[in-house]
């Protein structure tokens, strides 16, 4: 089997490459990545064996990288700019890196005769739903960030390409995915701040933001499980939430990090950037996905949100 993973040198993508090599015994994995947030170090052990080939390319630009998709059995499209915060000040970045890049990948698939896709979408496509936990069939989808809008636009492109050209696709709407190799997000931010000043922690928002977190090992296991068991039998496009049963507040995350770093008294300084206490404009304050559809396929998360946070902190501190 030959797989292509866009963004495969990044956080989730590199863990996915690990699973493709170790669990699915891939004959070849082609990673296409611009290395803006990823690193060859994440996959170098596979490159050295010859199983994985890295192509450095910008997917928002048409180019030679498109030829690498020809003959692939499955394309995992995981390349994107993941910084939700940046979309409020530089929206063009998410349009280019997320929407245009997805269109180019779909075109490369069409021209290369590839008809199977797994796409990394996001819980942010729901915006602020009135139903929590939120199921896959919730409507209307009303993202409140450019990032969420870019993911939803990409989903629509995939739906249309599937209808016109017969693609089979899994759209996976991930909760907050955390773990080793992550280089952005609230946990990384808090650890870096506390290393600089162990007695004071600035927290964006009022600390009551409550969200679901999933360890990357669980996220990738769910991805491989669905790919193996559902992609071939999918008629057109199928959508799955990939998340956890529970959620934690930002303040609870700070408490776990302070405990794991062995710090004493830390003063929390809350910085409200919106009147209702969000971390930034476009930040979804409450997020919990309904994962019953995923669980009906025989998969369940091993780590709770709280346990995933604690394990991630230990991994990032080199204690795991």
Précis, in short:
With 320 residues, the chain is of the alpha/beta class. It contains nine helices and 14 strands. Helix 7 (250-260) crosses helix 9 (305-316).
Give a description of the structure.
It comes from Desulfurococcus amylolyticus DSM 16532. The two termini are 33 Å apart. The radius of gyration is 19 Å and the shape is globular. The protein is built from 9 helices and 14 strands. Helix 3 (91-112) packs parallel to helix 4 (146-165). The protein has a 7-stranded parallel β-sheet with strand order 3-2-1-4-5-6-11, with helices on both faces. With 320 residues, it is α/β, with parallel strands linked by helices. Strand 2 (28-33), helix 2 and strand 3 (52-56) form a beta-alpha-beta unit. The protein has helices at 11-22, 44-49, 91-112, 146-165, 186-196, 216-230, 250-260, 292-295, 305-316; strands spanning 2-6, 28-33, 52-56, 74-77, 116-122, 168-174, 176-178, 200-204, 210-211, 213-215, 237-242, 248-249, 267-271, 286-287. The protein folds into 2 domains: 2-177 and 213-242, Rossmann fold, CATH 3.40.50.720; 183-212 and 245-316, UDP-galactose 4-epimerase, domain 1. The relative contact order is 0.14. The model has no long low-confidence stretch (mean pLDDT 96).
Question: Tags for this entry?
Answer:
7-stranded parallel β-sheet, alpha/beta, NAD(P)-bd_dom_sf, 2 domains, 3-stranded mixed β-sheet, Rossmann fold, Epimerase_deHydtase, NAD-dependent epimerase/dehydratase, UDP-galactose 4-epimerase, domain 1
